[in-house]
Amino acid sequence: MQHLRLLRLAAFAGASLALAACAQPPAPVTVVAAADALADAAPASPAGHMVVHKSANCGCCGIWVDHVRGAGFSVEVRDTDDLMTVKQRLGVPLDKAACHTAEVGPYIVEGHIPATDIQRLLRERPLARGLLLPGMPAGSPGMEMPGMAVPAYTVELLGRDGRTAPFSRHGAAGET
After folding, report:
1. Given CA atoms 160, 141, 7, 13 in this order, what sign does their dihedral have?
2. pLDDT tens-digit profile of 80-89?
3. How far is CA 78 from its chain centroid?
4. Within its chain, how far is the Cα of 74 from the centroid?
5. 53, 81 Cβ separation under 8 angstroms
């Protein structure tokens, strides 16, 4: 029991550090109060509608939102001071947490996942809970560094049983 409590505390501390690390001035992001308001304001998006849960102070999350909007997603941003509750409600494994969590269709999208991977997920419709990119890998959308080669990172598919498997690889190991 004590081991489980320590594991949860460590996961919470790691997620808190990830959130603190991206506390940059926020990028300009339009916040929509409800999906109905978005539906009234714009035609349906060809890529789909996405709800992004993030901290209001996270600049890299705002850059990622711009990335998925640029790929055709309509995005509703929900700023919150309690991302851990959102992650727990959606079933994000604490050891795979990142600085923002999105919902698109029946899936969760955790972290700085490239829009092309999300589009592939929606096209292929695997029996899964969603995609994960733990932490904040350098070179991923929203975490780009000018003039720096993209280090290798792997986006994972989260199965319904909680197991993960590689979904795509990006960066130095071969951009997909």
Report:
1. negative
2. 999 999 999 9
3. 13
4. 15
5. no
